[in-house]
Design goal:
- With 442 residues, the protein is of the alpha+beta class.
- The chain has a single domain (19-34, 49-440), classed as Cytochrome P450 (Cytochrome p450, Orthogonal Bundle), CATH 1.10.630.
- The protein has helices at residues 19-28, 58-67, 76-86, 95-105, 111-116, 118-126, 138-154, 162-176, 189-196, 202-219, 225-231, 243-274, 276-288, 295-298, 301-313, 345-349, 390-407; strands spanning 43-48, 50-55, 135-136, 319-322, 328-330, 333-335, 340-344, 408-412, 418-420, 426-428, 432-437.
- The protein is globular, with a radius of gyration of 21 Å.
- The chain starts with 18 loop residues before the first helix and ends in a 5-residue tail after the last strand.
- The protein binds protoporphyrin IX containing FE.
- This is Bifunctional P-450/NADPH-P450 reductase.
Amino acid sequence: MFPPPVPPKAELPRRPLSLPALIATARQDSTAIFPAALLRQSHLAGRSLWPWLALANPVDARAVLLDRARHYPPAKPVERMVRPLLGESFFLKRGEEGAWLRRRILPHFSTRASIGHGPHLRRLAAATPLPRTPFDAMGPLRTLTLRAILDICCGPDHGVDVPRFARAFDGYLSRIARLGPLDMVNLPPRLTETLGRRPGPLPDLRGQIDSVVHRRMKDGPRDDVLGTLIAARHPRNGRALGPEEVRDNILLMILAGHETSASTLGWAHWLLATHPEIQDRVRAEVAAAPSGPADVLSATPLLGAVIDETLRLYPPLSMLVRRPSGRDTLAGCPVGRHSFVLVSLYAMHRSECYWQDPDAFRPERFTPGVGAGNPAFLPFSIGPRSCPGATLAHYEARVILSAILSRVRLSPAGPPPVTGGALTLQPTGGVWLTATPLSQTA
Ligand code: HEM
């Protein structure tokens, strides 16, 4: 018996990067900007143009994200990267307005609402092509998660040309949503965009969602995310959202819920393909579970643990970047208005301080009653800006993985993927697999 392969990990630099190297690295693999020492320490401080403090411990992470969240808004470079797409969304318009909208849409991502989407998600997964010859699983998984979030937010009759939207979205991610030198300086937003970013596929992305919004405004009310955004009236002044605000909030859901879910599923496919014994155990668990849409939550603990372990090894948002609004002390270090505070979820999730054999794929860490509850596990963040789609994302991953494992056996068919991605931690280079129908494996 060979030991299972060590899952791919980010190539972290030995020393802190200079500013040009940091920007170049962040454009290719934003996970790899931290020195490797952060995997063995609670924090690291340095300076590249501005002072920075990188945190990899749950106590200070909670202080920044939860207890003192009001004093740690997202840093401007991150906002500048997403402003062209999400300018009118609640991600950027905070304060009372942002909190109110966030509360309005939350019920659409509850456990009950997620389970309601179960049969549709299962149908989408069943219709996903899984060739017998070697294929890059990221292609079908990206299309699947894009369809899922569009259908959930706008209803399955949204009319969006999904392949065209996917191409435009890929163009946005590869050409526009990458850190540039201008993002690091304080220029007025319009000037940064004029100097640094061409609109590229943005008009097409906006135009496609504009059509969905306008059609729905004529068609009348419906109980989905789009319907809720259109019907929402501010509790204090009765103001309705304008069509552009509705559109940008839908684009926020797509940006936040599509690549993150595709990344998780892609890595999970690779991990299961390279750990066939665990894959067999999950398949047996799924086969033994009742087939109702809620059962995938209650009757498949190992599947849930596989997803958590995937999110530990590959948190799709591998770091959260904040800028203090005033002086403070974190991890014994002074920080101020000019500092960057970076919570590295990747380093915390793989830290020798909090996990045994941190680079190994061991789902049993998360088996209920055995290893769950480690405070150094925060893939969906925590606090007022934490992921509102966390429950849906977990449920969606469970439904899709269980549907796929019930159809085929996954085996590796190429070199391991490498970590990459500017906004989210993606398996780059492809997740090369073969998918053998179960009828042919007995
Ligand atoms: C595995 C999948 C996912 C992961 C790991 C994930 C993770 C996260 C994290 C860490 C944040 C916090 C960002 C920050 O603090 O700067 C976040 C925010 C957000 N997520 Fe997710 N997410 C996932 C899927 C989804 C889905 C399916 C949706 C569906 C709509 C969604 C919607 C959002 C939104 C709207 C925000 C912004 C919240 C705010 O600013 O108040 N996410 N997500």
